[in-house]
Amino acid sequence: MNPFPHSHEHSPDWPFPVTAAGRRTSTATTISSTPSTSTSTRSSVSASLSFASEPPFSPSLTPSTYPSPSASIAPPAGVSPASRPRDREGSLNDEVARLPLNPAVTVSFVRSARLFKLRYTTITIRKDFTGALKCLELGGAVGQQTAFLHSFNTTRLPVPHLEHPKTSSEPLSPASLRVSFLDEQTVQTGATVFATQLSYTFEDWTDCVHFQELILASRIVFIAGIAEAKSKGRGEECISQNLRILRQDATGKLVILFFANSLRRGGKRYVSIPVNCIDSVTPGKNSRRPVVLQLQPNFDHLAQMKTLSILFLDADDQKAFCEFLAANNR
């Protein structure tokens, strides 16, 4: 009996044809997961993905130096060497990290006007010899002969978009664990290649976090939903989004990241603010008043923004944000 009865639509074009191809081996890291709990709600809007300026963090992966634990979000229980199945996307110089899932992830996409929902139990993240993200390989699905490959343009940093704002006071829901990519993505299985909108729905918060961290090559050291963010120079930046603080694996630099969904059409993009570019932090007098960040004009978009006022959805999250910046903005 198939343990994943809804692993895919019963469509004549699925699974796609299997083709033989040259295969090579490469080194790999396995990341084991442990369950965790947290929260999230509300919806967001989709838009094209681009950066206001060169992002201050690198798209490279460093799974061999996966970060150590923190109080806010637990890292993997362990990192250990692992042999890796051969696959046609492989290269002798590739570096690979494998994320086993607890228990699975559902990948959703539309092809030929049909909605597919496929369940997988492992995600392999591959980078090339330059450190650029190359592809995700999904495996462990019952009854499928080929891996599902999600490929990236190595000249552009993909940002996993957590669709629903997270708060510390509300329970998790399936929507809370859905990660998408705002641009169309390239998918390959067998000899079939096509572009589509993809979303990944996890069943465990820890898996959801680790997936984002491996793609961004950064630890997520803080995440919380914000009601709105406004800048002095550009006006309303976003409503009902997540604010993440990333610690880059390679350098340890901290970067604030949020999706500016309120900017005019064509300007909707992810905005990154290095924590060391914050001149001062003014907490709100109460939970109904925003936190105000005075920004240094180190990048063009920071010079345009001047200040950033952030109102969080949860008062405890707002307090934790101010405490984190006080401890780390030195």
Automatic annotation (TrEMBL):
UniProt biased composition (Low complexity): 19-83
Residue stretches of biased makeup (Basic and acidic residues): 1-12, 84-95
Disordered: annotated segments: 1-95
Protein name: Uncharacterized protein
Organism: Aspergillus mulundensis
